[in-house]
Amino acid sequence: MRLQGKVTLITGSGSGIGKSTALLFAKEGAIVVVNDLSEEHGRGTVKEIEEAGGQAAFIQADVTNPESVSAMTDQIIAKFGRIDVLFNNAGISGVGQLHEIEPDDWDRVMNVNIRGVFLPSKYVLPHMMERKSGSIINMSSCIAEIGLARRASYAATKGAVLALTKSMQVDYAPYHIRVNALLPGTIMTPFVEKYLKESYSDEAAAIEGLKKRQLSESLGRPEDVAKAALFLASDESTFVMGAPLYVDGGAVFGKNA
Ligand code: NAD
User: Fold this and answer.
1) Residue 97: CB atoms within 10 Å
2) Is 64 in the pocket of ligand 1 (CB under 6 A)?
3) Pocket test for ligand 1, best of 9, 15, 72, 245 (most atoms within 8 A of CB)
4) Bridge partners, 182 (sequence order)
């Protein structure tokens, strides 16, 4: 039980990496607050946790909306008294070369992927500062480190999240709050399946292409990222601060041939 009794908030945990992390955190003894825009998916995660004997609650909130995020934070504090771990996971994809992107689409990706990290952090941090304890995990991506075709808006957001993580860490280290970033490679989730469908006519060929970007023979699974999040959430990573943790099958540092 690596998170016994810890109150954890995972944004966007109705699906994919967030859902897998919610299930793992609960298995490790955490009280998991599942947040998502989708009530159906969020409640689905809670149901799976409860069926496995874990403890969870769902709060529907849009991470880009200050009133919703502030109300969600108040609700968690009222019910559980504290927030030990915040995983800023919710995010959306953005596809296209810069000159093809419509301004509204650009703003939407910025809004969810950057403002959606800013707002939950803004409202949760004062509670962590008061207790002088906490771990925040920000979802970046290995795209923050490498150029990938037709991903301009998405790459800009994930680079911003990585920079934000380092700044946050400096400001909140005096409060014993750790802030780290996860940089996954390609992880097979509904998010990637949608991107593949939208971007390629031959999905199987596209998957083979994605594998060429990395050293691992298979694409990542949500559980692979969940295990890294567990490490950052737990006291095992006490000396890990402001760090990017790559979970990418060798995409950033490896080179095939
Ligand atoms: P996913 O689409 O399966 O899950 C994302 C969840 O976030 C969805 O349930 C969605 O409803 C929720 N969400 C979206 N906007 C929201 C909002 N405004 N408020 C609250 N919830 C919202 O995606 P995933 O692949 O699990 O991705 C999770 C995170 O990991 C994202 O930040 C993504 O950018 C990042 N990431 C994914 C990959 C990958 O290959 N899958 C790689 C690197 C980084």
Assistant:
1) 10
2) yes
3) 15
4) 139, 245
Q: Is the CB of 38 under 6 A from ligand 1?
A: yes
The answer to whether the CB of 183 falls within 8 A of the CB of 131 is no
* Counted domains in the chain: 1
Q: What percent of the chain has pLDDT over 90?
A: 93
* pLDDT reading at 193 higher than 90: no
Q: Which residues fall within 8 angstroms of residue 1, CB to CB, at 6 or more apart? A: 28, 29
Report pTM: 0.98
- Supply the mean pLDDT for the chain: 97
Question: Domain for residue 220, yes or no?
Answer: yes
CATH of the domain at 111: 3.40.50.720
Domain that holds residue 49: 7-247
Token couple for 218:
């298979």
Whether 167 maps to a domain, the answer reads yes
Catalytic residues: 154
The separation between the first and the last C-alpha atoms of the chain, rounded to the nearest angstrom, is 41
Give me the residue label for tokens 């859902």.
19
**Structure token digits, residue 28:** 């490790």
Q: What is the pLDDT of residue 156?
A: 98
pLDDT score for 200: 86
Residue 2 located in a structural domain: no
**Could you tell me if residue 219 is inside a domain?**
yes
Taking the centre of ligand 1 as the mean of its atom positions, its distance from the CA of residue 257, in whole angstroms, is 32
The sign of the CA dihedral 74, 80, 83, 85 is negative
